[in-house]
Amino acid sequence: MFYSAFEILKQGLTGNKGWKPVWRDPAPKPEYDVIIIGGGGHGLATAHYLAKTYGITNVAVLERGYLGGGNIGRNTTIVRCDYGQPGNSEFYSHSMKLWEGLSQDLNYNVMHSQRGMLQLCHSDEQVASYRKRANMINARGDEAQIIDRDTIRKRAPYIDLDNARFPVRGGLWQKRGGTARHDAVAWGYARSADSRGVDLIQNCAVTGFDITDGRVTGVQTTRGAIKAKKIGMAVAGRSSEVGAMAGLRLPIESHVLQAFVTEGIKPFIDYTISFGMGHFYINQSDKGGLVFGGDLDMYNSYAQRGNLPRVEQVAEAGMAMIPAIGKARQLRSWGGIMDMSMDGSPFIDKTHIDGLFFNGGWCYGGFKAAPASGAAFAHLIATGQHASFAAKFRLDRYKTGHLIDEGGHGASPKLH
Ligand SMILES: Cc1cc2nc3c(=O)[nH]c(=O)nc-3n(C[C@H](O)[C@H](O)[C@H](O)COP(=O)(O)OP(=O)(O)OC[C@H]3O[C@@H](n4cnc5c(N)ncnc54)[C@H](O)[C@@H]3O)c2cc1C
């Protein structure tokens, strides 16, 4: 079914009785060409690109819970492309280009809003460091600039520029940064993959791998054994757990990250803004809620909930940056399980088992990565070759010393 203004009009005039379910609910078949484990953003995007770009449609996505119930539906929705390290730089730049055409590609409104992203600097040294980052972003062909206090004051008068401890000296402005509706991204990819013949199988947890002579031949699941020639893992926070089922020891730790939303209030925050003296970022959703978050809870866990000390720290950072948010009442909070790699960068690679591929290590930044990650993982599974824009995300980089150390761009376990 093609979504359009005409279709809305037609359905509206005929009692809205013609809408079809957005995806089917098929039973698993005994065998597929490709199985993707994990119905999050990366797994569903991979299924979409496998079907659309490579015509591989005999594919199942196996999801232990419901589609989009993991981090893809739990994040703070920030989309940006300001990474500096070779490897990440070209990858996130490519992802941004895919975001810019994603609603059209999927025929589904993912509500990608390029409202602009402002990262505050609180010392002259931080301005200098962000100036270097702006130069790197511009050199790559994406746009960024350093803006001064007066410009920030005009754009965001609610920021406390003269905070006694953290005065604002300037900011890094990326006008193509912004947000997208996280659930819609999962649903849009799911709908597209399903419409091309991919089976999306929910409530189907993978519990083991069948491996013969170093080659994967299928998976054991809570809904029985399923055979496949190729299997891709995209299970984010459960990467270590699922990897261990195939004998993989991954350089990844699972950590909790929380998100918070206030009651809906009148629009006042026009951009996505991050604090430079701590880990705090905020935007305002289309429903009016202030959506914000901070640092990891900093202990290993598979629980999708966090603890109060982090709530206090996030509130402190938020109040230091925008004192007015102290008046908003918090409505909801939740946690997601982050697949933290030790250099802050992801993996899209083959494993030592023939036919088994791995996608993970997205840390707290994998929402914006979903389009390029899906495209690169589909390319690797379909062709056996690494996509040019994701060629450095190798599993052996800790052995070879080719780390992509993006640690300076946010918190990672190794820094604490
Ligand atoms: C609070 C929070 C805020 C964030 N903010 C941002 C942000 O602003 N910008 C940004 O770019 N990124 C952000 N992220 C990170 C981003 O959400 C993740 O990096 C990304 O969503 C991870 O990839 P995914 O979507 O595939 O993961 P998920 O949606 O978690 O998908 C993995 C799926 O695998 C399934 N699974 C696990 N084990 C099995 C099994 N054995 N069998 C079958 N299925 C299994 C899970 O149920 C899950 O649905 C944030 C994350 C959180 C939690």
Task: Characterise this structure.
This protein has 416 residues and is of the alpha/beta class. Among the domains are: 20-77 and 182-251 and 343-400, FAD/NAD(P)-binding domain (3-Layer(bba) Sandwich); 117-154 and 162-175, no CATH class. It has eleven helices and 18 strands. The strands form three sheets. Strands 1, 2, 8, 9, 10, 11, 17 and 18 form an eight-stranded mixed beta sheet that branches. Strands 5-6-4-13-14-15-12-16 form an eight-stranded mixed beta sheet, with helices on both faces. Strand 10 and strand 11 form a beta hairpin. The protein is globular. The N and C termini lie far apart (50 Å). The mean pLDDT is 95. Bound molecules: flavin-adenine dinucleotide. Flavin-adenine dinucleotide is lined by residues 37-43, 62-65, 69-72, 74-78, 205-206, 234-238, 242, 257-259, 293, 336, 338, 362, 364-368.
How would you concisely characterize the structure shown here?
The chain contains eleven helices and 18 strands. The chain is globular, with a radius of gyration of 21 Å.
Bound molecules: flavin-adenine dinucleotide
What is the average per-residue confidence, as pLDDT, rounded to a whole number? 95
Which overall shape is indicated by the principal axes computed on the Cα atoms? globular
**Could you name the ranges where pLDDT drops below 50 across 5 or more consecutive residues?**
none
The CATH superfamily of the domain at 20-77 and 182-251 and 343-400 is identified as FAD/NAD(P)-binding domain
SSE order: HEHEEHHEHEHEEHEEEEHEEEEHEEEHH
Amino-to-carboxy terminus distance = 50 Å
Say what the CATH topology of the domain at 20-77 and 182-251 and 343-400 is.
FAD/NAD(P)-binding domain
What's the CATH class of the domain at 20-77 and 182-251 and 343-400, please? Answer: Alpha Beta
Count of separate DSSP helical elements: 11
